[in-house]
Amino acid sequence: MRRRKHRGKPITGWLALDKPAGWTSVQAMARARALLGAAKAGHAGTLDPLATGCLPIALGHATKRIARVQDQPKTYLFTVRWGVSTTTDDAEGEVMATSATRPATEDIRALLPRYTGEIDQLPPQFSALKVEGQRAYALARAGQEVALEPRKVMIHSLDLLAARPDEADFGAITGKGAYVRSLARDMGANLGCGGHVTALRRERVGPFGPEEMISLDTLAEMGQSAALPGGAVLPLSFVLDDIPAEDGTIDP
Question: Which fold has domain 74-204?
Answer without folding.
Answer: Pseudouridine synthase (3.30.2350)
